[in-house]
Specification:
Distance between the termini: 32 Å
Largest sheet: 11 strands, mixed
Strand content: over 45%
Number of strands: 18
Structural class: mainly beta
Helix content: under 10%
Number of helices: 1
Shape: globular
Number of domains: 1
Order of helices and strands: EEEEEEEEEEEEEEEEEEH
Length: 234
């Protein structure tokens, strides 16, 4: 199944944000849940192998957009399609984008590919999180491949690919974490800081944190301990 989500945020009168485009087709619905926030709502099981989700976000100058989801996504294998499921988020940001979706759980035998590509104008602000758990309770891990690319005014700030689960070259016991979390923030800088299986690294005008381990809630807490104060979009 192919799913397309489109949201455009624009500066309105009195400093408000208006959302002239809020639409979705396929296995996701999108709902406006605040003055400048939307939630993604699953309307079908999945994603299944072969499913493709494309999320397009445009945040114009002076606008603010917060994107959330209402529940974790569970990536499942497909009996008839050997291809991985895929979610691709493409964002063009001149204002402020706060992208914090619920975790992705990758079931046994499933392979999920996540791609985040963000183009920032000068002065734009970005906060984006990724949370992944390989396998549900009591089952073997699935496979997840995530790529994040962030550019500002044509200059690359971050381009990284992380592969977890069976079949990924760097995922070999005893280095085989089932849980992973990462946050990238562009808008305020920070120095290097380390924690337990977690690290914060500086980027030009920002920072990125990553953590890994066996339990997602512990991994998420490890990244949050490294975060400077980041305000949420309303």
């Amino acid at each position: 199944m192919r799913t397309v989500v489109e949201v455009v945020a624009r500066a309105g009168p009195g400093g408000r944000t208006v959302l002239p485009v809020v639409r979705a087709t396929g296995q996701l619905a999108v709902r406006r849940t605040g003055p400048s926030s939307v939630h993604l709502v699953a309307t079908a099981f999945g994603p299944l192998g072969g499913d493709d989700v494309r999320v397009s976000l445009v945040v114009e100058e002076g606008a603010t957009l917060a994107v959330r989801s209402v529940a974790a996504a569970v990536a499942l294998p497909s009996r008839g399609d050997p291809r991985p499921s895929a979610q691709r988020v493409i964002a063009e940001v001149s204002g402020t984008l706060d992208l914090r979706l619920e975790p992705t759980v990758v079931a046994v035998r499933a392979h999920h590919v996540a791609d985040l590509a963000v183009t920032l104008d000068e002065g734009a602000v970005l906060t984006a999180t990724e949370q992944v758990l390989l396998g549900r309770t009591g089952e073997e891990p699935g496979r997840w491949t995530g790529t994040t690319r962030v550019e500002r005014a044509g200059r690359p700030l971050l381009h990284t690919t992380v592969g977890l689960g069976p079949g990924e070259p760097a995922w070999l016991p005893p280095v085989a974490p089932r849980a992973y979390a990462s946050t990238v923030h562009i808008g305020a800088g920070a120095d290097v800081l380390t924690g337990e299986d977690a690290v914060r690294l500086p980027l030009p005008g920002g920072w990125v944190t990553t953590a890994w381990g066996s339990e997602l809630h512990r991994v998420v807490r490890a990244t949050e301990r490294l975060h400077p104060s980041v305000g949420a979009a309303a």
